[in-house]
Amino acid sequence: MVVSAALVGGALLGAAPASAGPAPARCPQPTLNKQIKQADVVFRGVVDKARPVTGKGAQRIRTYKVKADRVYRSSLVADTVVVTAEVGAKCPPPTLAEGKRYIFFVTEDGSRLMSTAATARATTRLTHRVVAKLGNGVQPRPAPPATAELTKVADAAPPRLSRLLAPGAALLIVSLLGLLVVGRWGRRTA
Q1: Distances in Å between the alpha carbon of 13 and those of 3, 18, 56?
Q2: Which residues does 131 contact at the CB level (< 8 Å), separation at least 6?
Q3: For residues 134 and 39, what is the distance between their CA atoms, to the nearest angstrom?
Q4: pLDDT truncated to tens, each residue of the chain (190 aa)?
Q5: I want to staple 93 with a disulfide (CB 3.0 to 4.6 A). Which of 83, 85, 105, 140 is the partner?
Q6: Which of 145, 135, 128, 117 is nearest to 74 (CA)?
Q7: Contact (Cβ atoms closer than 8 angstroms) between residue 12 and residue 20
Q8: Geometric angle at alpha carbon 166, from 161 and 170, rounded to 5°
Q9: Residues 70, 44: contact at Cβ < 8 Å?
Q10: SS3 of 11, please?
Q11: Within 13 A of 116's CA, how many CA atoms are on the CB side?
Q12: Is residue 81 classed as helix, strand or coil in its secondary structure?
């Protein structure tokens, strides 16, 4: 009788709901100062285009075309940039909606701008906090195109005409001599 009571009690304990276990781990929420230090570029912009997710597993990414209107930290080479989000990451950035304004905390990976989990909607509160830490920022300006600089070579004179014609004249003489030799050789064998 004691054995059956123990078995029934064990079965009831084993049937406890899964939610009674430990809650799934959440991504840590670092302070704004830490988020700013981890980001290479901090800017505000509107998502123009959100592309579908590509890749598989942990390699899944989504790209966003963003029209930047304010740069708070570092600089952008254009006012329209492409931001890549690693959807398969352990703590992925939020999914962004087209037409909405966000504050982007991005790192540079080669020529790609990689969104971090700190990227968020540009609410009045978040914008004021970022401005308090980084200042009003600047409007993004594309870098001016590189200008060509021509340098005159000191005391350089063009080559004389005889120096330009000498290789051609030598080739002509060698060709004529070759024709004479081949012509004579052809007459002897015939």
Answers
A1: 15, 12, 39
A2: 72, 137
A3: 12
A4: 444 444 344 443 344 333 333 334 578 889 999 999 999 999 999 999 999 999 888 889 999 999 999 999 998 888 899 999 998 888 889 999 999 999 999 999 998 999 999 999 999 999 999 999 999 999 887 667 778 887 777 777 778 888 889 899 999 999 999 999 888 888 877 6
A5: 85
A6: 135
A7: no
A8: 160
A9: yes
A10: helix
A11: 22
A12: strand
Residue written as token pair 């592309």: 51
Give me the residue label for tokens 């990451």: 89
Cβ neighbours of residue 81 closer than 8 Å, sequence gap 6 or more: 45, 65, 66, 68, 113
Q: Exposed, middle or buried by CB within 10 Å (0-12, 13-18, 19+), for 85?
A: buried
User: Which residue shows structure tokens 């050789």?
Assistant: 185
- Token couple for 123: 């609410």
Q: What does the pLDDT read at residue 23?
A: 35
Both structure tokens of 145: 């195109």
Q: Give the DSSP H or E segment for 115.
A: strand 112-115
Q: Which residue has the tokens 């971090």?
A: 116
What single DSSP character describes residue 18? G
| Contact in structure between 91 and 27 (CB atoms under 8 Å) | yes
